[in-house]
Each structure stands twice: as structure tokens, then as C-alpha cells.
Amino acid sequence: MTTTKNETLGESGERKEDVKRQKLMEDDDDFEKNQALVKEEVVDVHSLMRPYYAHIFPSKQLFEWLSYEGATSSKESRKDQQQFIQNREFCFTLKGEIFVRYNSYQDEKSLRKDLKTKVPGKIDIGPVFSHNPKNRLAYGGSFKPVERELVFDIDMTDYDDVRTCCDQAKICPKCWPLMNCAVKVLDVGLREDFGFEHILWVYSGRRGIHAWVCDERARKLSDEERSAVAEYFSVFKGVEGGGEKKKTNLSFGSGKRAWGGGKMHPRLEEAYWKVLKPFWEKEFLPAQKLMESKKHFETILSMIPDANVRQKAEFDFNTNKMPTVSRDGDVDVNTWRWQRIVKAVEDELRGPKVNWDLTSCLQRIIFSHVYPRLDAEVSKHMNHLLKAPFCVHPKTGRVCVPIDPENCDAFDPFSSDAPKVHELLQEYKKFGADENAVKKTAMGKALETFERCFWSKLKVANEEEKKKKMMMNNNNVLNESNKNSNAAADMEF
Ligand SMILES: [Zn+2]
After folding, report:
1. Rama region for 26: left / alpha / beta (φ>0; ψ in -120 to 50; rest)
2. pLDDT digits (tens, 9 = 90+) for 374-414
3. Domain ends where: 370, 401, 424?
4. Does residue 160 belong to any structural domain of this protein?
5. Which residue has the higher pLDDT, 406 or 72?
């Protein structure tokens, strides 16, 4: 998407939309009518969006978060605050894939009103600009993005070469754990290596996850700094010609020093032992059956730089050698064949003529299969749009709900953890007369996760930041008035 294209689309979209909006406003905003669709289980997602925005979508929470403010305290800060939120871009995708960019709102009420009239199928959040994006044309070259969350996008389609269960947009319980692996590795890296504290993890509604890093320091990163952070996490570098060999940018100590651990970057070392290796052996290999698939088995072999080890592994594969229950225990054949490769590598390394290239090959294989694969371009630019949390995925009808990073294994995207919009509306109708109806639906759980894992801490940090700024302002005022009274005193002499 280029700005020019979007702008043109946006402007023509807005014109078409005026007509459409008029029509929608004439329609009866009738909840019951949409319920008929729900009963028939016809998931026409778009027709359910208006009641969703009217009754369930948490625009208050979204707006409060993106305002980065608690209660305002002085006239000046109130004005700054309003300016700040008004300069944030909201992009709507309307029916017919019409992008309407550069919407902005002064408060939650005006956002909700616009959602109910325009009924976007998707909402994207852009940066905070130097000026109100609605008036961007008046500012020419001085209109530019000044701040936005550091965001990450991980999409299951980027793992197609290591998945045997699904491809493209499909996901299933066998491949979804790759996303949990990504959350665990990135969350620790962002917190411990970069010191970020306010990270919101969100299910994208279909085949991936997003992270929003909201610390003030992260929001103010330049594009160059964002690129550096994205590069830091871009360990997997793609697949070599013919799809045979996977590339990583892991660097190891060379020769004998590299063996026995502790020689990779400490964060990668930790990710390897705590997350990637156990996941690869216990979950991923049995689920994907990579050691039973000729294609995947050969890819793994192509990364082992030793003919003896390869021969032993090929023998197991070609003779269909299986673990013996009495001797090996009840172990999955894929895990077992991998363990035999590990043993063969270790044996070689103890031998008289050591091939030191072997020392890192097992790590390289694991990293190149299960280490998080970022869509780094999304992270690199302040001006990149990203789908808003709590919006509904137009293809699946599932809501983009927050994920608790400390308990991500428990999140099941195939269940009411990621509720479908028609189910939510059904639930809501049951509790409709209750003022806490939304909390009683599956959205209640999503909002609880948002509050507990993200917003409660950020709210406190915002308050503290505000107090600090107020004190600084007061000190400045005090210094200024002291200066003035000293000047007046000087005048008297
Ligand atoms: Zn799958």
C-alpha cells in the first residue's frame, strides 16, 4: 500500500461512502434483524458489524489506551492531550475493500458514532501525526508521523515450509503452538533486552499474532531504531534455492569453543534451552511428523555437515527403523529419530577427527524451523498500519482478542477464547437487559485479559509520567517567577 494509492482510494471511498452511509442511516438499526442471521448460523460478518460496534466493541478501552492519559489536570495539558489523540490515524476498510485513511477523533463518542455509521469491516491503527490527519493537505511536507507503538506481526503463512498439517491461511492445533513459541521468545527478549514493560499481545483473528509495544520510549523510536530492533529478532533468514536449506543469522563461537553451550548470544542461548529445544523435541516433531516425511527429513539432513551422521540417519529412515517400547520407552518415532541424530553428532564430536562445523548444526536446524519468523517490514516503519485489537476478522468473524503472554499455551484460537462475532451477539442478547451484559459474554474474558496483562500497568505508568511532567512544569513556573522577582529586586538598587 502506498500513501498515494490509499489517499486516492480513501478520497474516492469517502465519496462513495457518503451515499452508502446515508442509506445505512435510513435503515433501521435493528438488532433483531441481524439476530435472524445469527440463528441461521449464516456468518455474514459484515451484516453483524453494526450491532457489534453499537453494543460490544470496547471503543472506550481502545480510546483510553491510545490516549495515553489518565485524568487531565490543567488547561494546558488538556489541550495537548486533545491534540495528541486527534492526530492519531484510524483507517477503515469498508465493504468492497475501500480504504478510508486518515480518520481521526477527538473522543470515544465520535469514534463510536463513526463506527456505527460507516460500519468498517476492519479498523487499522496508524501513527500519531504532527497535525490532525484530516487536515493533512494543508500542511504539505511538514505533515509527518511523530509517534507510534513498536509493532510486530507474525503470520503462520511464513511457516509454510515447516508445516505438514496446513498451508496458507489455514491453522490447526498442530501448527498453532508455533505462535506460542513466538510469544514466549519475543516477550522475554523485548522485556529483558530492551527493557520494555507495556506489551499487548493480540490474536489477529485468523492466522497470526500481533504485539504492540507501548512504552513511551518504544513509541518514540525512529524508523532506523525500529529496523534495528526488528533485525535483532530476525534470526531466521529464509530458505536457500530449491527450498532445501534454511538460513539463519546465528553466530557461534568457532571450533571447539562453540560446543557445550554458552556460545551463542545469551538471549538466543536462553530461548534455545528454555523454549525452542523442548518445543521442537516434545511438541513440534511429533505434531508435524517431519522425520517421517521424505521432503522434510532431507531438508534436515542437508543442514548436517557430516557424511557419517547423515548415513546413520538415512539408514533409520530408509529401513523405517522404529523405537522399541521395551528399550526406548513410549517415544514418538519423530522424536526418537531426532535423538538418534543428536547422539550420532555427539559421537562424531568425540571421535579422533572432529568436524567442528557439526557443533552448531543441531541448533541451526531447530532455530531455522521454530524460531519466530517476523514480518519485519511491519515493525520497521512508524507509518505502517496494523489491525486494531478487538476488531473482527472479516473472513473468520473472530474477534482480535488479547493474549496473556505468560499463559499463551492456554489460549485456544479455535474456541470461545477467540469469540466469533455472531456468538458474541447471541450471548449479548441473552444478557441484553443487564448493564454488565458485555462482561458476561466471551468479550468479558478478553477485556479482563486486556486489563490484567496490559492496561492496568500502563494506566499507572501514564499517571506517574503525568505527575512527573506536572512537577517539572511547576518547577519551571517557580524558577521563572523567582527569576522575575530577582530581576525586580535588582531594579530597586
Ligand atoms: Zn496446522
Report:
1. alpha
2. 999 999 999 999 999 999 998 999 999 999 999 999 999 99
3. 370
4. no
5. 406
What is the 178 CA–ligand 1 centroid distance (Å)? 10
**Residue 166's Cα: distance from chain center in Å?**
21
CA–CA distance, 227 with 379 (Å, rounded to integer): 7
Tell me if 278 is assigned to some domain.
Answer: yes
Mean pLDDT across the chain, nearest whole number? 86
For position 219, what pLDDT does the model report?
96
433 Cα: distance to centroid of ligand 1 (angstroms): 41
> How far, in Å, is the centroid of ligand 1 from the Cα of 331?
22
Q: Any residues with CB less than 8 A from the CB of 399 and at least 6 apart, and which?
A: 205, 390, 391, 392, 393, 418, 419, 420, 421, 424, 443, 446
Q: pTM of the full predicted structure? A: 0.86
- Among all residues, which ones are annotated catalytic? 89, 153, 155
Residue 116, domain CATH: 3.90.920.10
**For 115-134, how does the pLDDT look when each residue is reduced to its tens digit (9 = 90+)?**
999 999 999 999 999 999 99
Same domain, 320 and 203: no
Cell of 232: 535483532
| Ligand 1 center from residue 422 Cα (angstroms) | 25
% the chain with pLDDT above 90 = 69
Total domains, the chain = 2
Residues with Cβ within 5 Å of ion ligand 1? 165-166, 172, 174-175
